[in-house]
DNA sequence: GTCTATAGGATGATAGAC
DNA sequence: GTCTATCATCCTATAGAC
């Protein structure tokens, strides 16, 4: 799995364009133009447009899966696990917001096995998160609301954080983590 | 502003396709196929593909703007205003999830004045929401966290609710409102 | 590693018959 | 109101020269 410098450049440039306009609205010519070369030259480094999307989405999905597995299998309490998950999402948002945009918005344009394996990873991730919440409710650490409402409320905030962090990016990451954990866990009133 | 029955059918079918695949991945031929006619026939009812997107996104944006203006200018407390906003989002999610998907994911494919007026409505909406939160903090009704974190956390949950409601759609709307208001306002622990 | 040239197909939209 | 036929343009990708 060695990836050349040029290939990494292509993926990076493409991810920035995907973030703004979406996978389908970005052409190989757009990507090439940004790199100062012709579209045909891209094919010396990558197999095609699909490969760029697969790398972006699947690499990040694997990173989320690894992080979740580590946290889920730890000895922490449910609440502490959720705190760790929130912090993981914030760290990934700060360092990989472009790939996160592709994962959120363009995963449906994956094809074949790539699409299947993405959906499987996403479903596993949600199932792990759901189990942590349910353990917390059983535990009395977490209030007895509908677990799906809790899961959705936290996940949707974390998943779209990238949209907002770029605009309000001046906010210190540690302040963000502290306030975000507090708002999501303890509410606002 | 009279809209023919056929035109409404076209917009409805298109919105369902846009929701699944995104504006750019849906062709006029796809829309026509779903209606059992040829792509060229669509142009007797609509100006073009762009018009479908404009109607979907701008009509819904205007509905949000109206709802916000009514709530913001009421005599309710900041917390009560936020409750009303949450309920409004849930009602719109339940009745217009396809248009909501377009508003969330495809607004950037609007052009010219339509794009400008959408962005203006969206910014106004957020500014109104922000003011309500700040009034609540000044009021001591709402805890003194970073207002942007509170705003983002609530808005991102409400904006992506349509993604989740379709999957877990069996949940009763009133149960959803009750639990969602509680989770967002009072937290989970 | 980049180029030019081009294949082969999809796209949004129009003209004009029925 | 729908059709067939078609245009002009864009798209991803390949072949082969340099």
Beta fraction of the residues of chain A?
Answer: under 5%
The chain pair forming the largest interface, with residue counts per chain, is:
A-B, 41 and 41 residues
**Order of SSEs of chain A:** HHHHHHHHHH
Which secondary-structure class do the elements of chain A indicate? mainly alpha
> Which architecture of chain A would the CATH scheme give at its second level?
Orthogonal Bundle
CATH topology of chain A: the name is Tetracycline Repressor, domain 2
Structural description of this entry:
The structure is a homodimer of 189-residue chains. Helices cover 74% and strands 0% of the residues of chain A. By secondary structure, chain A is an all-alpha fold. The first copy, chain A, has a single domain, classed as Tetracycline Repressor, domain 2, CATH 1.10.357. Chain A is elongated, with a radius of gyration of 19 Å. The mean pLDDT of chain A is 96. Chains A and B meet through helix 8, helix 9 and helix 10 of A and helix 8, helix 9 and helix 10 of B.
Give the SSE layout.
2 copies of one chain form a homodimer.
Chain A: H1 5-21, H2 28-35, H3 39-42, H4 49-72, H5 78-95, H6 97-105, H7 112-138, H8 147-159, H9 161-165, H10 173-186
Helix pairs in contact in A: 1-2, 1-4, 1-6, 4-5, 4-6, 4-7, 5-7, 5-10, 7-8
The first copy, chain A, binds a DNA duplex (18 and 18 nucleotides) through residues 6, 27-29, 37-41, 43-45, 48-49.
Record keyword descriptors for this entry.
homodimer, 189 residues, mainly alpha, Tetracycline Repressor, domain 2, 74% helix, DNA-binding
